[in-house]
Specification:
The protein is an alpha+beta fold. 44% of the residues lie in helices and 18% in strands. The chain has one domain.
Length: 116
């Protein structure tokens, strides 16, 4: 028996499993979109397994953070994608960063990378 999961359900499932720290809310939205497209491409449904997703993917705040974690020297997310496979880049907006506001958020390019 399967249950349809909306984007809202997906994003909030991480909070329900006490996994809020694994991905930013914006990262969860990007991951939902990517997984939904993957379902369409495969022609089959993917089961929502919050713990499995947390084990299979990691969100990085910058390419520098990724390089530090893996001891690599990539210059951008495209290079990582070409070498490693699944990379989900997205723009993260921080409305509460010092000197920023809702009308002028601090935006950074982040990515969620499938771990191998």
């Amino acid at each position: 028996m399967k249950q349809t999961v909306t984007e809202y359900d997906f994003v909030n499932a991480f909070d329900q499993y006490n996994r809020s720290e694994n991905f930013s809310r914006q990262g969860r939205h990007a991951l939902f979109e990517w997984l939904s497209e993957l379902e369409e491409d495969m022609g089959e449904e993917i089961e929502l397994d919050v713990i499995g997703i947390c084990c299979a993917f990691t969100e990085y705040e910058s390419i520098g953070e990724f390089n530090e974690a893996y001891g690599t020297e990539y210059e951008d997310w495209d290079e990582v994608s070409n070498d490693r496979g699944n990379v989900i880049p997205f723009t993260h907006a921080d409305y509460f960063a010092e000197g920023h506001s809702v009308t002028n958020p601090l935006t950074t390019e982040r990515a969620i990378v499938e771990d191998y």
